[in-house]
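Re: your question about Arylsulfatase

S., sorry for the slow reply, the queue was backed up all week. Below is exactly what I fed in.
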Amino acid sequence: MIFSTAATKAANLSTTHRLQVHRLQVFRLQVFRLQVFRLQVFRLQVFQVALVLGIASIGWLVPSAEGADRPNIVFILADDQGFGDVSALNPESKIPTPNIDRIASEGMIFGDGHTSSSVCTPTRYSILTGRYHWRTRLQKGVLGGFSPPLISKGRTTVASFLRDQGYHTACIGKWHLGWSWPLKGGGYADDGGDFSGKFKDGWNVDYEADIQNGPNDVGFDYFFGISASLDMPPYVFVRNRRPTQAATVEKAFHRKGPAGADFEAVDVLPTLTAETVGQIKSHAGDDTPFFIYFPLNAPHTPIVPTKEWQGKSKINTYADFTMQVDWTVGQVLDALDEAGVADNTLVIFTTDNGCSPQANIPELEAAGHDQNYIFRGHKADIFDGGHRVPFLARWPGKVKPGTRTEQLVGQLDLLATAAEIVGAALPKNAGEDSVSFLPVLLGEAKEPIRTSIVSQSIGGQFAIRDGNWKLCVCPGSGGWSDPRPGRANLTKLPPMQLYDLANDPGEENNLFAKDPQRVEKMLGMLRENIEKGRSTPGESLANDVEVVMVKPIPGTPKQGK
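Result:
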């Protein structure tokens, strides 16, 4: 009985104690909730004060996702303009480029920026997809104006990715990635890559029917421009899915083909410029950020500066046209200023490959102008003059003005950079060769963002970088300069070329025979890039076609992969 009474008292005491503890916990929870409530009230009051004072943002008031930077992005891509054709990059340039230089002085120069190819179409594919073009059917050369699309359905592009993040997306200019032109009898045009002017189905295109598998199908809300290079028919402007005028006459801006009666080559650059300025002004007041991809038609052939620019350079028409390109850049910068959005806009200026021989390089050199600066070769070549290009970025408040970096960077890095800017992850099967250069832009990179990049010539010959070392997996230029495939006897040359760019940026001293171990290492790197279907970390992916790493040397038996 005594035991029972003691046990009962202990049980009652234990229950009382647990109740007291529970009440204390409830009290503490109520105090905590009250503190949270007071903090929320305080944040609301500060936010109201901020609104009154016109403060743009106070980061800790809102979740990080809502306060993330979402700048406008304008990507300007000139066509066939060399590294040395920008005076901010070439101190001895004879072509003034004050507006492009303004981007450099107010932003950053990338001294080691590269295209994935030394010609048009492949560069454009890599920019928009963050994937090397040679993973597709396009193993060499470029597409024509009536070619089917190169970007496959469902492929993530910079435009589709940013549109999913709430951006308005526009492409204004030279597309040159193929699309599906509807034919009058059904089906779609396919020039088979023959852009010589011999393709006759251009007259069977239904120019009043919707174009399929074009810019509007790969992420762009708006498109205005031309189907391919300005020397490739058809010569018509296209707005979204329809030509603005049917091709009813034949014209030739180097190659003959169907054209709109009112279409003139000289009008293209100023028309594209006006469209881009209009896009900036019409969307500057929106809450929606915008991405404008602006691939120019110039200074590519036909080299047709407008009357006010003819003779301005006192060198030749190419130099005149390059000055007009600089004017176009100035119009874009002025539009951003006038719209009040320059401070929240990342502007990138670059070019699709080096200067073309069509610029009359001997004439430029006679005037003391080196179109590709100290770099060997030009458009089409595997040498750096073919694919090391102007690469400048301005982002006020983010990129320190007047800076320069020698970080290795590629245009195909745009997709990963955009993803990091908006704080969103790319799909696992997208941007497989894209590396973000945002840390470089912000001055936060403590180490190289990439140590390797792959480039390709017009003939499909490969080159790969390993730090400052460059291996060209071919003899000769792989393009149009000497030693030129098909013209020079390349069998008398070493089968590959190894250059130390740190000491030999002009690629004059071939070290292939002196460093076989480095050659083997770099060949292994290239082979791995090809076989894994990607060059960034992640699961292996499939290339669209078989990729031949070492191309046959003209006039010799086929070599192995």
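The longest helix spans residues 2-53. The longest strand covers residues 403-410.

Happy to talk it through on Thursday.
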